[in-house]
């Protein structure tokens, strides 16, 4: 298996180029890439691309992105050999990574892991949204303002 983190001078890593191509083919400002994950080895790659949107993402959007990204990958001959490309939404079980995701899920219960100089803390509450880089989180006792830079992990609490 080849090492992907080491690239010749003047070249970008496979992960970086995949992310760039995925962003290029989105075609709309209300959609954004959450993650691009390349797994496997040469000749048997699995590429997962997770797309979210300010108002959600439709199946037609995912199909269009998949077609356009596959065309771009083939035109650039970026993946040598066979590969499987999966383009999907991140699903509610995945971590919230961007301010846009917090605002898309206002009203939902989230679990947030914070990190401060004196330690870490897990907080559960209703997501009231993000403004100026600060999450408003309504707990059973109070409304907390948590700077996004203090959040190490945040996920939507699923109802089951």
How would you characterize this protein structure?
The chain has 160 residues and is an alpha+beta fold. It has 2 domains: 14-88, K homology (KH) domain (GMP Synthetase, Chain A, domain 3); 99-156, SH3 type barrels, CATH 2.30.30.100. It is 22% helix and 42% strand. A hairpin with a 1-residue loop joins strand 1 and strand 2 (43-53). The longest helix has 18 residues, at 59-76. The termini are far apart.
Radius of gyration: 18 Å
Number of helices: 3
**Strand residue content:** 35-45%
Strand order of the main beta sheet, please? 7-6-5-4-8
CATH superfamily membership of the largest domain: K homology (KH) domain
Portion of residues within helices: 10-25%
So what's the CATH class of the largest domain?
Alpha Beta
**Spatial separation of the terminal alpha carbons:** 40 Å
Low-confidence stretches: 1-9
Sum up the overall morphology in one term.
elongated
Number of strands: 8
Strand pairing plus helix content: what structural class? alpha+beta
How many separate domains? 2
Please provide a brief summary of the model.
By secondary structure, the chain is of the alpha+beta class.
Question: Which SSEs are present, and which pair or pack?
Answer:
Blueprint: H1 14-25, E1 31-41, E2 43-53, H2 59-76, E3 81-88, H3 99-104, E4 109-116, E5 119-131, E6 134-138, E7 143-147, E8 151-156
Parallel strand pairs: 2-3
Antiparallel strand pairs: 1-2, 4-5, 4-8, 5-6, 6-7
């Amino acid at each position: 298996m080849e090492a992907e983190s080491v690239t010749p001078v003047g070249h970008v890593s496979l992960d970086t180029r995949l992310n760039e191509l995925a962003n290029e083919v989105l075609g709309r400002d209300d959609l954004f890439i959450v993650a691009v994950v390349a797994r496997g080895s040469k000749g048997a790659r699995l590429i997962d691309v997770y797309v979210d949107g300010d108002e959600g993402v439709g199946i037609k959007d995912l199909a269009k992105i998949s077609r356009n990204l596959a065309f771009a990958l083939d035109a650039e001959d970026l993946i040598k050999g066979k590969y499987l490309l999966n383009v999907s939404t991140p699903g509610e079980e995945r971590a919230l990574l961007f301010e846009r995701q917090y605002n898309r899920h206002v009203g939902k219960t989230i679990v947030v892991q914070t990190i401060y100089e004196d330690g870490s803390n897990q907080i559960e509450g209703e997501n009231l949204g993000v403004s100026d880089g600060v999450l408003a989180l309504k707990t059973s006792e109070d409304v907390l303002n948590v700077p996004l830079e203090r959040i190490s992990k945040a996920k939507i609490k699923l109802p089951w």
